[in-house]
Amino acid sequence: MFISQVILSSILIITGYLVSKYPNLIAGYNTMSKKEKQKVNIKNLQLFLQWLLVGLGVFSIISYFILEAFGISIERIISINSLIIVVTVIIALVYVNTNKKFKN
Known about the structure:
The structure is a single chain. This protein has one domain (2-102). It has helices at 2-21, 34-37, 42-69, 74-98. Helix 1 (2-21) runs antiparallel to helix 3 and helix 3 runs antiparallel to helix 4. The protein is elongated, with a radius of gyration of 16 Å. The protein is mainly alpha-helical. The N and C termini lie far apart (44 Å). The protein has four helices and no strands. 74% of the residues lie in helices and 0% in strands.
């Protein structure tokens, strides 16, 4: 199961770096018209998503080792990490859609 945590963390970290280089990977941004894209502060959005995804990847692997050290079962570790990732992504979506720093 450690391999699944490494794969998940690697995917999140790599995606974070790819989003910073290729903004069209951001869901919804690639389908916007040029007029709609001008309303988005893409630099702030890229930076936020990069830090979010890299942070989640690093957190996932660190929390695995910490929870395993406390003797928590692998199934619970995966459940806890999954729950934290889902909740964090939901909070981040609300933040991005309501904060004015991501709009021009």
